[in-house]
Structures are given as structure tokens and as C-alpha cells.
EfeO-type cupredoxin-like domain-containing protein
Amino acid sequence: MRMSIITLVAGAILSASFTAGAAEPVADAAAIVKAANWDAMETITVELTEHSFTPQDLKLKAGQPYRLVIKNVGQKDHYYTAAEFFKSVAWRKVQTPKPHGGEIKAPYFTAVEAYKNGGAVELFFVTVNKGVFDVICTIEDHKDQGMDGKIVVE
Ligand SMILES: [Cu+2]
């Protein structure tokens, strides 16, 4: 009896923290990435400059493999920060463009920075969770200047 009360309380605390806080990273991400048809991958390029994302908003399909290229064509460094979105997809890898650079594999991360004058980062993932996610540049006042968008996964 005492045990079940403790379990109930623990469950309530857990569910409260899930609603209030960030979503958990996608479970089974490795299996989702492995099962995906990468020949059907769609490439989308977002250009960053002073002070905008082009396109500003993205509309993505759940369950689709993507290569999202974040390219800074401006003259300042910029971020493409979408922490909740980055937790809601199954990550294959992040890379800087070939033939130079390299790649990173990780369960998830919070922000991407592309350096001024042509810096680019390529994100390879499969969309999993549906929702509307914020994306901003976190440098100084760039968000208020217009570097503020949405990523919609349907
Ligand atoms: Cu910026």
C-alpha cells in the first residue's frame, strides 16, 4: 500500500516535469535512421544573413529523411538555434561540407552556428515528433531584428 502511494507521487512528479520542461530526445533514433530510405532524402537550404532566415519558416513532413543546410551568406556570425526541434528528430549526423571539414554524431544538441561569409553546416535527420518549434539566432538583438522563425512538422 505504502509502495503504491510512493509510486503514484513519483509518477505525478515525473509527468509534471515532462509537461513543464523540455521534451525527451527521440527514443530508438538509431533504428529510425537505419530504417529510413535515404535515397528519398529531401534537401532544404536555409540562408542566414543580417537579419533573417530564408526561408523564415519551414514546413516538414513527419517520418521523412532530410538534409538541412544552414548557410551563412551574411557578414556576421549567426546561430540557428532550435533546441526543441533538435530534440524531436532522429539524428543521423551533422557535417561541414565535403571535401574539407568533418562530421559529428550525437543523440541531440541545442544550437548550430554558421560562420560569416559562407560558413555552412549540414544537418541529416529523420523528422519524428509533430509540432511547431521555434528557431532563433541567439546573438545580441538578432532575434528582434528578424531572425525568428518556426519549424512546423506535420
Ligand atoms: Cu544572428
Summary: The chain is about 20% helix and 40% strand. Helices lie at 2-20, 29-35, 83-86, 142-145. The chain has one domain: 26-153. Residues 5-21 have pLDDT under 50 and may be disordered.
